[in-house]
Specification:
Blueprint: E1 7-12, H1 21-29, E2 38-42, H2 45-53, E3 58-63
Antiparallel strand pairs: 1-2, 1-3
Pfam families: Ribosomal_L30 (PF00327)
Family: Belongs to the universal ribosomal protein uL30 family.
GO molecular function, one term: structural constituent of ribosome
Length: 64
């Protein structure tokens, strides 16, 4: 029996210019390289931690 992994869509809505270097690196780690870029990611604890670190720069939507 396989459990279906929850997914989230993250969209970059804020610029990393003038932010701490770690925040820019976190955006790159999430696969976001420019404004309004979106990615669908698995909602693992690691991914959710990264999202929490830069939540002020992202729009997050839960997918079914």
């Amino acid at each position: 029996m396989s459990e279906q992994v929850k997914r989230v869509r993250v969209t970059q809505v804020g610029s990393p210019i003038g932010r701490k270097p770690g925040q820019k690196e976190t955006l790159i780690g999430l696969g976001l390289h420019r404004m309004n870029a979106s990615r669908e990611l698995a909602a693992t604890p690691e991914t959710l931690g990264r999202i929490r670190k830069v939540k002020h720069l992202l729009k997050v939507e839960e997918l079914s």
